[in-house]
Design a protein that fits this description.
This protein is of the alpha+beta class and about 375 residues long. It is built from five helices and 22 strands. The two termini are about 75 Å apart.
Length: about 375
Amino acid sequence: MTRHLRSIVFGTVLVVTGCSKEPPEEVESHTVVPVTVVPAHVGAITALTRATGLVVPAPGAELLVVAPEPARIVEMPKAEGDLVKRGDVLVRFEIPSMAAEVSKQQAEMQRAQARLDNARAAQARAHDLFDRGVAARKEVEDADREFADANADVSGARAAANAAETIAARSVVRASFDGIVAKRSHNPGDLVEAAASDPVLRIIDPRRLEVLASVPVADSLNVKVGAPARIADEPNGLPAAVLKVVARPVAVQPGTATVSVRLSFIAATSYPVGSPVQVAIESGMHEGVVLVPVAAVVREGEETALFVVDQTTAHRRVVKTGFDDGEQIEISSGVKAGEMVITSGHNGLPDGATITLSRPDEAGTVGKDAAEGAGATPDAQGK
């Protein structure tokens, strides 16, 4: 038993000794991150105030046809999309109450005219008798008074008849400008109410359109009447739509977050009324400032930073920014002109990381020039 036990222990020691090996040597490795760089440069930049807006007709370029009173549509010759000329008949209403009122006022005017004719004849007869010594002065005075009253009655009746005819004329609506039928909500034979919420037709002038933009109150302080602007989300293939500010509010309701700013199109536009658009309004310019591409800026919480290249190392710099035009951004402190800043490959990049410069596809020799400006060697560029 003792000899057998010793064999087991000795075998166990051999197994343990045979399995004991030195741990593998750990080798540190650093990932070299490929990045694109450009030099910060001095230039001019225009600040842009961006806002959301709607394409709407300009004042006087829209006509909503509403019945003057509850009525029936008799005629409606224009369909949606039809062109209309100034003076064209748009809608003809049948309003029985208006026709009855015109007849009533015309009858009143005829009655008043007949009274005036009688009063004039009585006045002439009274004066003739008084001149011959037959009539008393009181009879002449009564005749003069009756004539004056009858004359006033005729004037009142004529005014009432004219008013009734003017109102009756509203039963026929004509175009007040050249335009196009944007919306047709009813057809001949329909009964309609005299309510702005139930328009019969909507006519607009497509040559007179503008954008009604909602601008934050703080940003509106920099927006001036006459300032140039453009559509920021212009679809590909369409010419750039240029605008200018034509009006901004002079008073704001308490608690209002945005104000309405009106911008007119400089030239005719193909945007339909009601289209939502993004506008960029020029609101100031800075010259002789340090500029970098917007893509170079990294925002982390309340900090804004850039990565500056020194040979093959990226250094994080906290910076202060100014104007931003969507492509370039002003750097007011933290980076000097001529320093190389990273524009791609810096997401998640730690301070002091080793980098290699890559050539941007869209910029022929920028990568090479940037590498030379940063003092990089061919090995650092991955060549």
